[in-house]
Specification:
Layout (H helix, E strand, L loop, with lengths): L13 H11 L9 H6 L20 H11 L10 H13 L9 H8 L7 H4 L4 H19 L18
Length: 162
């Protein structure tokens, strides 16, 4: 678990202490900390999302299996938490019956032919619209369990040129 390092290395915890404290402790008496919020929900009802970084976790096989079985948005590759939240809110807005269908199935109904309906498009800002446009082929690929050419072209710049 040392990731190609022969000896454990010392590091400074001070930069992350505030992050840990904000996660673990309440900032106000009447508001739960993020940790308390997570622990107060039964495991099967927890709000979680698979991300590429999850591949490094020892629980990945369990989470991946559950994601596939439940047809969660996380089954689609590279969908951010923010894009997932927007997509779930769109499902809720359109009155989906989550007890009978999966998230992936609901999104497939919401975006037929991977097109964003005008009434939804008009409610989104440019960056959110772009993230959904990039997500739709990935969601379709997850639903069909196949590779789908997207037609999208990605151009990467060096940090200097970006």
């Amino acid at each position: 678990w040392l990731k190609n390092v022969e000896q454990p290395q010392m590091f400074d915890l001070l930069p992350i202490v505030e992050v840990l404290e904000n996660f673990m402790y309440r900032t106000q008496d009447d508001i739960l900390s993020p940790l308390e919020t997570l622990l107060s929900v039964p495991r099967e009802k927890a709000d979680w999302h698979m991300l590429p970084i999850c591949n490094e976790c020892s629980y990945f096989p369990i989470c991946h299996k559950q994601t596939e079985q439940e047809g969660r948005i996380g089954e689609a590759a590279y969908i951010s938490k923010g894009t997932r939240s927007v997509l779930l809110s769109l499902i809720d807005t359109e009155g989906a019956n989550k007890n009978e269908t999966t998230e992936i199935e609901e999104l497939d109904k919401l975006f037929p032919s991977q097109q964003i309906p005008k009434k939804i498009e008009e409610t989104l800002d440019g960056s959110t619209l772009a993230s959904i446009m990039l997500a739709l082929p990935r969601i379709s690929a997850a639903r069909t369990k196949s590779l789908l050419p997207t037609g999208n072209v990605t151009i990467d710049f060096t940090a200097k040129d970006d």
